[in-house]
C-alpha cells in the first residue's frame, strides 16, 4: 500500500517539500492542496517580478543573523539544506542564479517565471497531484491516519501532512492549527516602510542615500544602509531592516515614533563640526548651497541647508554658529515623526506563526503530533529583506521532505 503525503499550500515551501518528497521516494503519493486559483503566487510577484531566490551568504552563523525571529531554529535547519544547496538544486535543473552587488541572488533570466516553471516541471515529472481552489478547513486524526476536511465537504485521508500555508495576518486564521494543540506567536507585519505624513522632506521623493544610519528614538533599534525618500516617507533597505527587527516593538507603539537619520553616517555631530571648521578655513568664500562637499544628493543637501536657515548667497565664512549647529544636526541627527506604515510592494512578510519550541528543527515535525510537519512562513521565522525568507522556505520544505521519505522507508 503506498503512503500519502498531503501538503497544505501551493507556495514556495509547499512546492519544495512536494517535489523533493516525490523525487526521493516514488512510492509516496504527494498531493498539494491550494485554496486559491493560483500556484506560487508570491514567487511570481517576488523581488519585483525577478524573485530574489536566496542570498550569497555561505556561513551558517552569519546567515542566521539575518532572521529577527527564529535565528537558532534556522541555524539547525541550514545544516541540512543551505544556500549552496539552493544554488545547486536550481542549477541542476537548468536554472542558473546570479549574485547582485548587495548579495541578493536572482535567476539569470531576471524573471520569477523561471523559478515557477522549474518547480512546476519537477512536480509534473514526479507525479505530484495538485488540487486548486480547495481550502483545508480542519485536520484531525482518525484511526491513526490524518483526516483532512476540505472546502466543498470533501475529506482526504493521508499518512503525513505538511502545513505550508504561509503567514496569516490575523491570529484567528490560525484557529484550525490551534485546534490541533499548537500555539501561535501573535502575527504582526514585518518589512514595511515608514510614513511621514505631510512632512516637507517627502518633496524629495526619489532621492536616495547609499549609506545612512536610521535610529528609532526611545528604542534600541538602529540600522545602517541605503535609504530612499518616497512621496509618503522613508523606505530603502535600512528602513525595511529596521521594520523587521522592530516588528513587535513598533506594533506596540502603534507605528507612531520618532526616527533620527544620519545622512552622513561616517560622521557624528562632533566630527562633522571639526570637518566644518576645516572647510571654513580652506574655502571661506565658497557658497554653501550649490557646492555639496559630501557627495550627498544635491537636492537633499540644499533642503537640509535651507531648513537650517542657510540662504542661497551664504558663504562658509559667514555661517553663523547657531545656523551651523542646526545644519550639522540636520545632516547627522535629522529627527522626524513617523505616523503609520506602508507595506512594501517588493517584499512583505508576517512575523509570528507556529511557536518554534513545538517543532523539531532537525525534522520539521511537530513535537506534539507525530506525522505532522511545518514548512515556510507559517512558522514563527522571518528574515530581513534580501532572499532570506525564500531560503527558509526552501530549507524547511526540503527538511520536511527528507524526514517524511525517511519515515516511509522505515515502514
Ligand atoms: C510582494 C512580495 C515580494 C516578496 N519578495 C521576496 C523575495 O524576493 N525574496 C524572499 O526571500 N522573500 C520574498 N517575499 C517573502 C516570500 O514570498 C515568503 O516568505 C514566501 O513566499 C513564503 O512561502 P510559503 O510557501 O511559506 O507561503 P506562501 O507563499 O504564502 O504560500 C502559502 C500558500 O498556502 C495557501 N493556503 C493558506 N491556507 C490554506 C488552506 N487552509 N488550505 C489550502 N491552501 C492554503 C495560500 O493560498 C498560499 O498559496 C516576498 C513577499 C511578498 C508579499
Description of the structure:
The chain is of the alpha+beta class and 411 residues long. It contains 13 helices and 22 strands. It has helices at 12-24, 41-49, 60-64, 71-78, 83-92, 112-125, 175-178, 237-245, 247-252, 269-282, 298-308, 321-332, 388-410; strands at 4-8, 29-33, 54-55, 97-99, 104-107, 129-131, 136-142, 145-150, 154-158, 160-163, 184-190, 192-195, 208-216, 221-229, 233-235, 256-262, 334-339, 341-343, 349-354, 359-360, 365-366, 372-374. The strands form six sheets. Strands 17-16-13-14-15-12-18 form a seven-stranded antiparallel β-sheet. A five-stranded parallel β-sheet has the order 6-2-1-10-22, with helices on one face. The protein has a three-stranded antiparallel β-sheet with strand order 3-5-4. Strand 7 and strand 8 (145-150) form a beta hairpin. The N and C termini lie close together (11 Å). The mean pLDDT is 96. The protein binds flavin-adenine dinucleotide. Residues 8-14, 33-36, 41-42, 45-47, 51-52, 135-136, 164-166, 346-349, 376-377, 387-390, 393 line the site of flavin-adenine dinucleotide.
